[in-house]
From TrEMBL:
Residues 22-140 form the PPIase FKBP-type domain. PANTHER family: PEPTIDYL-PROLYL CIS-TRANS ISOMERASE FKBP18, CHLOROPLASTIC. Residues 60-99 are annotated as: Disordered. Pfam families: FKBP_C. InterPro entries: FKBP18-like, PPIase_dom_sf, PPIase_FKBP_dom. It comes from the Eukaryota. Its EC number is 5.2.1.8. This is peptidylprolyl isomerase. It comes from Eucalyptus grandis (Flooded gum). It catalyses: [protein]-peptidylproline (omega=180) = [protein]-peptidylproline (omega=0).
Length: 147
């Protein structure tokens, strides 16, 4: 459980480096509501205007939502990917990845106040509790050592 009361459990512990506060991580995430995948990083980018490619989501552990590190090839309209926005993860993801190991998979029970609140997102209605599945793919330590 996180300090703010969000419950989680590890499905697979992982064997790689640990994500610590301030680390930049790449993850795949899926928000599941009543058995339906409502929001997912696995359906995030348009490739060459006509094909979808699963692009990992990158952010700094413990940072507030919206402070993600921008990747030039993703955000540049002349790059490989279109400028289509990536799916928006719930705020709970920024803190619940702390302590995960690369290769690990974690399930988080996200209450509305740590999720999409009273606005909702896609098939997740306002005020809903849902399941967040996170797979940690890569950790880059704050000093720039990629692992």
């Amino acid at each position: 459980m996180t300090p703010d009361g969000v419950k989680y459990y590890d499905i697979i512990e992982g064997k790689g480096p640990v994500a610590t506060k301030g680390s930049t991580v790449q993850v795949h995430f899926d928000c599941i509501y009543r058995g339906i995948t409502a929001v997912s990083s696995r359906e995030s980018k348009l490739l060459a205007g006509n094909r979808i490619i699963a692009q990992p989501y990158e952010f700094k552990v413990g940072s507030p939502p919206g402070k993600e590190r921008k990747r030039g090839s993703v955000d540049n309209p002349n790059g490989l990917f279109s400028a289509q926005a990536a799916p928006k993860p719930p705020p709970a993801m920024y803190s619940t990845t702390e302590g995960m190991k690369v290769g690990g998979k974690r399930t988080v029970i996200v209450p509305p106040e740590a999720g999409y609140g009273q606005k909702g997102m896609a098939e997740i209605p306002p005020g809903a509790t849902f399941e967040l599945n996170i797979e940690l793919l890569q950790v880059e330590r704050p000093e720039g050592n990629q692992t």
